[in-house]
Every structure is written in C-alpha cells, then in structure tokens.
Amino acid sequence: MAFITLNRQELKENFNHLQKLFDNKNIEWAVVAKLLCGNELFLKELLNLNPKQICDSRASNLKTIKKLNPDVETVYIKPPPKRSISKIVTYADISFNTELETIKMLSKEANRQNKTHQIVIMVELGELREGVLREDLIMFYESVFQLPNIKIIGLGTNLTCMYGVLPNSDKLRQLSLYKELIEMKFNRKIQYISGGASVTIPLILDNTIPKTINHFRIGETLFLGTNAYENTRYPNMNQNVFKLYAEVIELTEKPMMPEGELGLNMNGEKTTLNPEWVGSTNYRAIIDLGLLDIDLEHITPVDSGMSLVGASSDMIVIDLADNPKKIKVGDLIPFQMDYMGILRIMNSEYVEKRVE
Q1: Same domain flag for 310 and 228
Q2: CA nearest 197: which of 65, 88, 55, 335?
Q3: What residues form the membrane-spanning segments (predicted)?
Q4: N or C, which end of the chain has less CB nearby within 10 Å?
Q5: Per the residue annotation, which of 34, 78, 87, 353 is the catalytic one?
Q6: How many domains does the chain have?
Q7: Are residue 164 and residue 199 in the same domain, yes or no?
Q8: Distance between CA atoms of 324 and 137, rounded to whole angstroms?
C-alpha cells in the first residue's frame, strides 16, 4: 500500500521560521490547513505547534479541528454556501464573505445559536475570483455592520490563485486605503487587513509591503518551504515535510517500443513514439499508485535517474533505465510532490498517512 509521510521536525522548523518572520513585522498569521483534508493524525501535529488561527474551506474539516482543540480560532476561507450556514456558524469563529444575503443568513443563524459571528469582507483587486467590487465596498460595509450578531473584523483580498495576478505594494495600498476610508466614515476600527498569502511573503522580505497589512494566511510556504511568488525554494526552509512512497509490484526488462496498432489511451490521448526506441529495452517498474490518487505532472521520483512513463487509474509505470540501484519487487520508491499533488494524495482514502 502506498503511503504519505509528514515529517514532524521539518514542519516545526518551517512553522518557527515563519513565526519569527511575522513576529518581527508585527503581523498575525493563520495556517491554511486545507492541504491536510481534515486528516486527524496530521492535524494533531499542526495543532501541537499552537497556531493562533487555522483556516480551511470545508466546514467538516473545521469540525474536526474544533474537536481536537476547541480553543483554536477557526476561519472559513471562502464565501459560505447557504446550505452550510448552520455548520459554519457552529465550527468557524470567522468567515470570509462577499454576499450580503449570505451574511444576513449568518446573522440570523448566529442569533439562533446565541453567538457573535466574525467576518472578513473580501475585496476584488483584479484576480476576479471572490471579492466585493471596490466601488461597492463602502455601501456594502454600511449594509453589513448594522446586522445583529455579526462583527466585521477585517478586510481581505485574494490574488494569484486563479489567473496568477501577483500582489504588489500598489494593490495592497488600495486595500489599506479602503480601511482608512471606512474607519473615517463610520468611526469604527478594523482589526485585520488580510492581504497576505504565501505569494505575498517576498514583499515582506524586500520591505515593500504596506505597514497596514497585518494579517497573512499561509499554507504552501509552511508545508512546502517554497517561494510561491517566484516558484522557487527558500534555502532556509524545508521542502520535504511531505514524502510519498509507493511499492514496486512488477519489475521486468521490456521493449521500449509498444507492439501493435495504436489507438487512444484511457485519457483519450494518442501516444507519440520515438523511432529510437526500436530494438531498445529498459527496466520498467509498476507501482501501486494511479491516476485515481495523483496526476503525473504533480509527482517526481526522488531519484533523478527514474522517469515516469505513463499511468492508468491504479498503476504508474516508471522507467528505471538499466536499474543501477538494483530495485526489486517489494521495494519502496520515494517521490516528491507539489502542492496540488499533496492535495490529491491527502484526499485519497487508498493512500495511508504516517508521521515521521
């Protein structure tokens, strides 16, 4: 059975590194834990680091987090679906919002549960995903802050996730400007300006982030040690918090050139063959992992001498060349993954989860 490991020490080192970075800039931050897909084993490791806030985009995952630690502050980080309002008020202390009718429902449900539900209003700054249009923000805020059992604690924005619009100081200054306008017009303080995610960390490092940006939501850099702005690695952070292992279930020296008339494979694609393959052989390993668990573009063998040949729903074929490491059936092959690869693997019930 294939399995994914979380390295406890490497996660702790990455967390402490980020905590020091944000403390030095007087910035609060929340861990975005949606990568863990609500896995209790891994969530316990994360909670042992004592984060102040944990964000997720699934109410069921927030329920698990509250079960493990009722005191940690939970944040629902996408506009709430109307059919999940009760669960969100129950398990999320804070939610990110863009729709007035949804917030009215949150207000009604919070009143029913005898709670004050906190919200962050997301502002559209060009990514064209979630966000209130800038020209509508003042009126939107005025409509919301009068609602009972609702407390607006922040303004936020999301960049990069859909079109790849990069954050810069000009965009974040716009967010800061709206904070000042609202505070002046309504004589109310806004606690958080949540303009930061992993992709915004480089603006801290080069001192170009506006001082009013005082809240970040971090997932990728914590778990992968990567610079999401430049798609590179931070040299002082760990990139192997997660590692995937799959067992070799067949290993045979086979011809490189397929034999027979070629049609479309299971993905509807026609394979392009290299004439140089004629008459050549290599060692091919089949592992107990497939497209049901992960896409090939999100997984890389740790051994650079191995390459992925192809995959079906539950098997992946690996080219071992002349098998210099003398791999045999039953051996484990380790892999590295990118963010989307880990997310897919964590969501597969067929891949075991282990802590190192």
Answers
A1: no
A2: 55
A3: none
A4: N
A5: 34
A6: 2
A7: yes
A8: 62
Nearest to 226 by CA among 199, 206, 207, 244: 199
Give the CATH number, domain containing residue 179: 3.20.20.10
Residue 197 located in a structural domain = yes
3-state SS, residue 1: coil
Pairing mode, strands 352-355 and 3-6: parallel
260-292, pLDDT tens digit by residue? 665 556 666 666 766 666 657 889 999 999 999
Burial 113-127 (b: 16+ CB within 10 A, else e): eeeebbbbbbbbbeb
Is 115 within the bounds of a domain?
Answer: yes
pTM: 0.93
CB neighbour list of residue 16: distance below 8 Å, 6 or more residues apart: none
Q: How far apart are CA 347 and CA 341, in angstroms?
A: 10
- Each residue's pLDDT tens digit, 223-257: 999 998 888 999 999 999 999 999 999 999 988 66
Tell me if residue 78 is catalytic: no
